[in-house]
Amino acid sequence: NSVENGSFTWSSPSNIALVKYWGKKKDQIPENPSISFTLDHCKTTTILSFSKKENQDSFSFEVFLDGEKKDDFKPKIETFFKRIEVYLPFLKTYHFKIETSNTFPHSSGIASSASGMSALALCLMSMEKELVLNSALSKVEGGKENFEDFFTQKASFLARLGSGSACRSLEGDLVVWGEHENVVGSSDLFGVKYPFEVHQNFKNYHDTILLVDKGEKQVSSTVGHNLMHGHAFAGERFKQARTNLSHLINVLKEGDLDAFIALVESEALTLHAMMMTSMPYFILMKPNTLEIINKIWAYRQESGSKVCFTLDAGANVHVLYPEKESGKVLEFIKNELVGYCQNGHYISDKIGFGAKLI
Ligand code: PMV
């Protein structure tokens, strides 16, 4: 092809799962379907610059985070490139410079893999698009238009191969990943925009992320997913996630905030229960995680608020609440919860609408 060099920039958000993905098969195929809210503020911006090279024997790239060279990111990206090479055959014909920055601190305990891998996948797809449009396909009738349809789906497919949950970050405000009989078009291979009606109660939902522990993850998600192989409760858990997703479809349609709370908190605690009951076992919560959960429960009891929590595979707490309560709940968070955060750090976020080409 004739494209010598160029660059693309994408910004892509993080996401927070309501029904969790925990356990995978070969090739990043999830054991159960999951659904997430796309975030708005927490995102990664990636500039991918490329130039043609002579030697086509190996991948060639450099990675920068906030302008600083990051050689320790290279193995992850090398693995990603190996996995996606068959789907993007041009990877070895270019040298890449990958410049990334996050809106959240790198050492915040917030995984940047979902936003980072989706941003990179989108940059690579923009590149593929340019190469394709320079080639014969652009001359085929409908070639260009068909490519547009395919773009997001393939980008999500590639992002999945970087980090499973990354395939849920491209669109918003809700994304389903994993085949489910009630969700038309759902797939194990890529995320799809949630196709059903969502009640006003769930529009513009807020997520304030309390940074309880900003250290490196105690258990990498790769290790965590693998712990589900041969796990005594795995089969039941995968079934439960399917049932919960079916149930959530009605909850989102009806606007039933109490049912939402019960489902989302149970999912978070089940994720942690899976880690506590695997071999080896892990407790990923910290004492302050539990303090925060108890405060949220007490506040809900006292005030009738519909605030709830969810957790990732770590100690930080995502506090979820409806837009119409946002003023009051933020006061509660500042007065009663921020004290449990490491150095008082938290991030105010809300539901967002996906990645953007810059
Ligand atoms: O995308 P991974 O492999 O880092 O897995 C993430 C898993 C959880 O964040 C714990 C749950 C989820 O569905 O996002």
TrEMBL record:
<dbReference type="Pfam" id="PF18376">
    <property type="entry name" value="MDD_C"/>
</dbReference>
<dbReference type="GO" id="GO:0016831">
    <property type="term" value="F:carboxy-lyase activity"/>
</dbReference>
<keyword id="KW-0444">Lipid biosynthesis</keyword>
<keyword id="KW-0443">Lipid metabolism</keyword>
<dbReference type="InterPro" id="IPR041431">
    <property type="entry name" value="Mvd1_C"/>
</dbReference>
<dbReference type="GO" id="GO:0005524">
    <property type="term" value="F:ATP binding"/>
</dbReference>
<feature type="domain" description="Mvd1 C-terminal">
    <location>
        <begin position="209"/>
        <end position="337"/>
    </location>
</feature>
<dbReference type="InterPro" id="IPR014721">
    <property type="entry name" value="Ribsml_uS5_D2-typ_fold_subgr"/>
</dbReference>
<dbReference type="InterPro" id="IPR005935">
    <property type="entry name" value="Mev_decarb"/>
</dbReference>
<keyword id="KW-0547">Nucleotide-binding</keyword>
<protein>
    <submittedName>
        <fullName>Diphosphomevalonate decarboxylase</fullName>
    </submittedName>
</protein>
<keyword id="KW-0067">ATP-binding</keyword>
<feature type="domain" description="Diphosphomevalonate decarboxylase-like N-terminal">
    <location>
        <begin position="13"/>
        <end position="182"/>
    </location>
</feature>
<keyword id="KW-0456">Lyase</keyword>
<dbReference type="InterPro" id="IPR053859">
    <property type="entry name" value="MVD-like_N"/>
</dbReference>
<dbReference type="InterPro" id="IPR020568">
    <property type="entry name" value="Ribosomal_Su5_D2-typ_SF"/>
</dbReference>
<dbReference type="Pfam" id="PF22700">
    <property type="entry name" value="MVD-like_N"/>
</dbReference>
<dbReference type="InterPro" id="IPR036554">
    <property type="entry name" value="GHMP_kinase_C_sf"/>
</dbReference>
<dbReference type="GO" id="GO:0008299">
    <property type="term" value="P:isoprenoid biosynthetic process"/>
</dbReference>
